[in-house]
Predict the structure.
Amino acid sequence: DAGVIQSPRHEVTEMGQEVTLRCKPISGHDYLFWYRQTMMRGLELLIYFNNNVPIDDSGMPEDRFSAKMPNASFSTLKIQPSEPRDSAVYFCASSPYWDRGRNEQYFGPGTRLTVT
Amino acid sequence: GDSVTQMEGPVTLSEEAFLTINCTYTATGYPSLFWYVQYPGEGLQLLLKATKADDKGSNKGFEATYRKETTSFHLEKGSVQVSDSAVYFCALSEGSSASKIIFGSGTRLSIRP
């Protein structure tokens, strides 16, 4: 089975440009998560969805960040306008239904974003 | 709120050495506990988990026991290999937001041949 798919794997852009990161979760998973990882701040949860509905976006750093999940097989994380401090590795993860002990998350390979 | 504290790295060991990475947690209820591993250039992968007190999770020679009395979930391996070099994250999920996992800060492990 294919795991979580993210694209692009690497993105280099200039400050002020719009950036769109894409994620395809594992088929049948009900939950989708977006994380950001930096050396300074570690792994941060940005937002997560349940059945395509955003549940908790308290980790989204600013209004410049937005996320959508138009259907069960696709999600986007958009940054507009981008800034150098947004440079990080962005991970998407998915998880099956919530049940005690079954809610482990499956991570994609990440998108390394560099904003110059 | 719920939190996870793990020993700071980096940890450097020689091949075949014994490994312990300490992890303690704070939670209001009865969390599930996890260890994830991140190899260079990759996403996190579940290494092992335990869902209730005294459970032992194990995988690839790694073990961790859920200790409720000490709120700990220390990761151990009897003989490490160079291929174990990675970043290890302790994590928990609990309560009404059990779909959400709280990760520790990660411990970087380097194994010398």
Remarks:
- Chain A has a mean pLDDT of 93.
- The interface with chain B takes residues 4, 31, 33, 42-43, 45, 48, 50, 55-56, 91, 93, 95, 98, 100-101, 103-110 of chain A (CB under 8 Å).
- The longest strand of chain A covers residues 42-50.
- DSSP finds no helices and eleven strands in chain A.
